[in-house]
Amino acid sequence: MTSLLHLDSSANRSAESVSRQLTASFADTWRAVYGSAGYRYRDLAADPVPPLDTAYCSLGRRVEQHGLRPPAGVESLITSTAEKREWELTRPLITEVLAADTVLIGAPMYNFSVSAALKAWIDRVGFPTAFTDPATGDSLLRATRVVVVSARGGAYGPGTPREACDFQTPYLRAYFGGLGVTEMHVVSAEMTVAGFVPHLARFRPLAASSLDAARAEVTALASAPAESGSRAMP
User: Fold this and answer.
1) List of residues 6+ apart from 1 with CB closer than 8 A
2) Could you tell me which residues come within 8 angstroms of residue 57 by beta carbon, excluding any fewer than 6 positions away?
3) Domains located in the chain, CATH noted
4) Residue 233 binned pLDDT confidence (cut-offs 50, 70, 90)
5) Helices (H) and strands (E) in the chain, counts
6) CA spacing 20 to 30 A to 29: which of 67, 72, 91, 222?
7) Are strands 102-106 and 145-151 parallel, antiparallel or unpaired?
8) What is the distance between the alpha carbons of residues 110 and 89, in angstroms, rounded to a whole number?
9) Residue 70, CB half-sphere, CA atoms under 13 Å: how many?
């Protein structure tokens, strides 16, 4: 069954959030094509992922010491109540990613990078060896499509004066690439604050065209199937 994991991370949970508007458009289009059975939603701002602590680090190091170990084999290495609690917070997030053919991430740019809510999720799901096939050493995410929808108050795209200030896109590409994701799309709506910031009024046509292009792109991506089959659950 085709499946979609939809994550929002904007601190602005109102209808004004551009990243939420765009991810909702993607999700609506996707459900119209594939139905709702394979859809899962998580709001990382409304239900924050707890930051890591010592118990998470200790358990992660122990897992690494035992070589490649799938999520199903982690519990046998737990040695304390604190580690058990950390794993109970972590494993459901990993399971959601492994079950998804497409992972859709609403990622507004905050201070040139991602939000704290998204970073906390990234840190926790990046548990050692969680996405590695212990039999082959291959990534379990090679067939997973990741679609990042970014809203930026300014312009940071290729050729813009502030292109070098975009630490968000290279970071996300490096992170998911490191997990073995080979199909990743980044859709950006730029100059999103031009509509209400007086001194940026001259950029409103640019903002409108960028948003229109982003809407068209998410609709097209939602209609196209990910290049994946069913998820294998280690």
Assistant:
1) 37, 38, 230
2) none
3) 4-223 (3.40.50.360)
4) very low
5) 6, 5
6) 91
7) parallel
8) 25
9) 14
List, as one string, the DSSP characters of 108-170: --BTTB--HHHHHHHHHH--TTTTB-TTT--BTTTT-EEEEEEE-SS--STTSTTGGG--HHH
Q: pLDDT tens digit string along 7-43?
A: 999 999 999 999 999 999 999 999 999 999 999 999 9
- Helix (H) or strand (E) run with residue 32 in it: helix 18-34
Pick from 10, 41, 6, 11: nearest CA to 23: 6
User: How far is the CA of 130 from the CAs of 86, 88, 92, 153, 214, in angstroms?
Assistant: 14, 14, 12, 35, 32
Distance, in Å, from the CA atom of 35 to the CA atom of 199, rounded to the nearest integer, reads: 44
Token readout for 95 is 């399971």
CA–CA distance from 197 to each of 15, 20, 192, 200, 204 (Å)? 18, 20, 10, 6, 10
- Which tokens belong to 181? 């994701």
Q: Check whether 100 has a pLDDT greater than 80.
A: yes
Bridge partners of 184, per DSSP, are 146
Other CB atoms within 10 Å distance of the CB of residue 94: 21
